[in-house]
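Because discrete structure vocabularies remain unfamiliar, we reproduce here a specimen of the format, pairing a chain with its fold in token form:
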Amino acid sequence: MPSVKDVCRHVRSKNAGPFWVTFDLFFDGPENFQAYHDHPALGPDLFQRLFGADPALVRHYPVPSLHMVKISHARTSPQGGVVERDMHCGQQFVRLLDVELG
């Protein structure tokens, strides 16, 4: 069963302002983009489970010309808040790498 790291050539995360986090998944070609960009395993439930995100506030933005999908969710607390552990969200993508897309 392939995982995100098996079908993507690059995965990154970053802040999208003080109230949102965004993930960019660059698939390694058009076939994997078509097969996995809207896979249920990458749905709102995953972001709720991994990041505590409100499933109603998870957004998917496919970019077919780049074979990538941007997935954003509202932060559970604002950037720079007392409980902030990764102000720029640069390390958050690691949790996605082993997600199975079976």
Remarks:
- The helical segments are 4-7, 30-36, 44-51.
